[in-house]
């Protein structure tokens, strides 16, 4: 991200060190990643060691150093989804996008990751595509959803 | 309009009553996270389109989640002068039929579950509604004691007037004008309320200590980092009745002498984040947050802070680290947050469910609150019953309710006539109890004697087609991924337990591995720094004891018999 933009986000949060998570959230959601350059610059602006910023970026699962897809696919791996067949849904997603958990497609359109619980435990298996969540999934339903997504965004295989 | 006097509050209450019993038919769609996931958006927009196209004289609104997400999208229909009607599993087709029925002045029957009486509205059902069951006698709502969830799925969660009409903000008014801080704390002590986040510490005692601490700046933190897989009660309260939570938070602030509240919300609830911010803006506009609350000289601000997706940040000291912009790193206590909390200021950290209990306690008195529950655990508990049961969902029952009763009579028992093999109370840390040992009182004391816990109230039901080794390995993977890495017993020990469990699952192990698990587990329990690491081995150790056959089947046959 350009320095000017980072500066604007940091000033919006009044250079408060406590707001660093909120700052990282904003940059992550716009860039789909936290570049080393960005982390260095944030550290400089907030007058904190780079190691701290790097520590946050790698500790919290909401942030990533590598680029995530424009559509971030998050599969719920909570116990309820697991019992109700999340593995089958994961298999479909991994094979359709040719991805393993934690990876991003070559064209950076999609990334796949697990999340420990989406809080929709009586309607699992659940998968979130960015903030759109789909529930009561099975093999057929997730296949249909992926096909619709492909039509909208183009095949990433 | 800022509410400053009792008269203002009464005006708002009347507006709310009108909104709950409107002159023209009103269809409200359940628009919480679960509603969204099952198509509520499409329904809502279809309704608006149809209304405009046909020039219908109906209003369209929204309600929150009732805790039974598999019945979503739900709809509540209010007809002039009648109890509300609750519809489940709505589709565009069904909604169109409802509109057609309403146009013909017929009661729509498709998808109708029950009628919802409202004692405050004193409405007569009328003979045409007699054939339908009422909310209190129909599954899944019957036999519950919905104190916290009473309005969830029934009122518009963003309507302050509807909340006030249902009795909301009466407690805050009473506290600010008729009670001193000490009296508020005394009521909470008398209620016997204990922390619902899982630690069950007496809330009133915590508040009393924080109140007595001398400091200009104190904080109230609401722990909404609902991370236990299987739990969604806090989300349901926040999305179904946010003002109840806010009222509890402001009361906490008043009681301990704090003017700043923070809700630490888990990152995985993006929809809830937007929603709570809207609710805060609304509460500010009416003067329920901000300066001179309800016209008194008490000021209180509330901010919603998003977490970063880390389970350990649900632990209160790690949570405060996160709020200070650090990685979540559990600290040894003392000092306790009530002495040195956020920014080293006196701080109370309470769970969403705990705080949502406060308005009831202040409005009706601690003694009345303590009228239900067990000797040591008062009030109700929201249970999240999930897994292989007919009707999964949130069941709010008095503490001390029998587990078997909850699973069979409330949640409908196991699916398709299968048998219950194991039940985990207090997931993810609670031990799995064998299916034949469910005649247990659900309260922290009883469960502790069974080596288990009530935790945040997640009850996972497994049937005979489930492999316990698979489930235990899955839970262990969760602990490994969520370990913060600070202490060796958790970082390396739990990881090694997972390695051994994986080899057992895959059939690459011997009976000696069970002994290794036992030794390793005992060591971790003794030496891990916090409850996450120290709590992890218990499910494995009790699993080997109570479900040994599953382990032996993997070891002797070399594969998973259920796969």
Task: Please give a handful of descriptors for the protein shown.
A: 157 residues; alpha+beta; Arc Repressor Mutant, subunit A; Glutaredoxin; four-stranded mixed sheet; elongated; B: 563 residues; alpha/beta; Ubiquitin-like (UB roll); five-stranded mixed sheet; 42% helix; globular
Main β-sheet, spatial strand arrangement of chain A:
2-1-3-4
3D shape of chain A: elongated
Tally of DSSP β-strands of chain A: 4
Helix content estimate of chain B? 40-55%
* Sheet with the most strands: spatial strand order of chain B: 2-1-3-4-5
Helices and strands, with pairings:
The complex is a heterodimer of chains A (157) and B (563).
Chain A: H1 3-12, H2 20-31, H3 36-46, H4 50-59, E1 71-76, H5 79-83, H6 86-97, E2 110-115, E3 127-129, E4 132-134, H7 139-153
Parallel strand pairs in A: 1-2
Antiparallel strand pairs in A: 1-3, 3-4
Chain B: H1 6-20, E1 26-30, H2 33-37, H3 40-54, E2 59-63, E3 75-78, E4 84-87, H4 92-103, E5 112-116, H5 160-165, H6 170-178, H7 181-191, H8 203-212, E6 219-224, H9 233-240, H10 242-256, E7 260-265, H11 270-285, E8 301-306, H12 316-323, E9 347-351, H13 352-364, H14 366-369, E10 380-387, E11 393-398, H15 403-410, E12 420-425, E13 432-434, H16 444-449, E14 458-463, H17 468-482, H18 488-505, H19 512-527, H20 531-535, H21 537-546, H22 548-557
Parallel strand pairs in B: 1-2, 6-7, 6-9, 7-8, 10-14
Antiparallel strand pairs in B: 1-3, 3-4, 4-5, 10-11, 12-13, 12-14
Helix pairs in contact in B: 6-10, 6-13, 7-8, 7-10, 9-10, 10-13, 17-18, 17-21, 18-19, 19-21, 21-22
